[in-house]
Design goal:
- This protein is of the alpha/beta class and 228 residues long.
- It is 28% helix and 26% strand.
- The protein is built from 8 helices and 11 strands.
- Strands 6-7-5-4-8-9-11-10 form an 8-stranded mixed beta sheet, with helices on both faces.
- Helix 1 crosses helix 2 and helix 7 crosses helix 8.
Length: 228
């Protein structure tokens, strides 16, 4: 079973979980599902890029809202698709279920995930998605990961509150674990994050953010030039 620090969560207006460890909400106060679709799905040109074997990776699993938004977006895709998420502080199933009540569309497809999570499972199917949540400090787990993502959801807590999650060394690992023609998207436009991702091999662009956020960031890692 997952055993996070039960005291690390507060609820804003009774519905939005806020990490007391990082003093940051788990999803947007202005409709987290809409933000996920704008930032992570549209920011990675999804679901248009889905194909069998397409691999999404994520920094920051949180309530699983990004996973469920991906599940909804892939509803008509035969799969298989892969979704790997890195999480240091897993939430208990009761808190996840409570958070998802704010998003009936996501909650409607969440039962297989919640059942697996309640049983302590970190690998489980969800529609066409083969899901794996890798628990532990991402600074340790990502360098050891053998995968390569076609699209990254970079959804750690705010860089101002959790700078370790956005350090250049970790962004370099994101780049190293990205397939040719892979992409990333994130809600933040912080300069040091953008620079770290550029140094990691991405062409980084600023794009309109969601809600009150003026900007977000997205990027593409070009395929290597063929050798003559």
């Amino acid at each position: 079973m997952h055993s996070p620090d039960q005291s690390s969560l507060e609820w804003k207006d009774g519905i939005v979980p806020v990490s007391t460890r990082f003093d940051d909400p788990y999803f947007s106060l202005a409709n987290g599902l809409s933000e996920t679709r704008h930032v992570f799905l549209a920011g990675n040109d999804l679901p248009q890029r889905f194909r069998p074997g397409f691999h999404i990776a994520e920094l920051g699993f949180g309530t699983g809202l990004n996973l469920l938004a991906t599940r909804i977006a892939a509803a008509d895709h035969p799969g298989p698709l892969r979704f790997t998420s890195f999480e240091a502080f897993p939430l208990p199933v009761a808190d996840i279920a409570r958070a998802l009540e704010a998003f009936p569309e996501a909650r409607a497809v969440a039962d297989p995930f919640l059942t697996a999570w309640a049983a302590g499972e970190t690998r489980f199917p969800l529609g066409p998605l083969a899901v794996e949540v890798i628990l532990g400090d991402v600074r340790d787990t990502l360098p050891r990961w053998q995968g390569a993502a076609d699209a990254w959801f970079l959804d750690g807590f705010s860089p101002a509150k959790n700078p370790e999650m956005w350090a250049p060394e970790l962004m370099a690992e994101v780049g190293r674990h990205t397939a040719a023609d892979g992409t990333f998207a994130t809600y933040t436009a912080a300069g040091f994050v953008r620079r770290g991702l550029a140094e990691a091999g991405f062409t980084v662009a600023r794009a309109p953010g969601h809600g009150h956020k003026r900007h977000m960031s997205r990027g593409h890692k070009a395929a290597p030039e063929p050798q003559p």
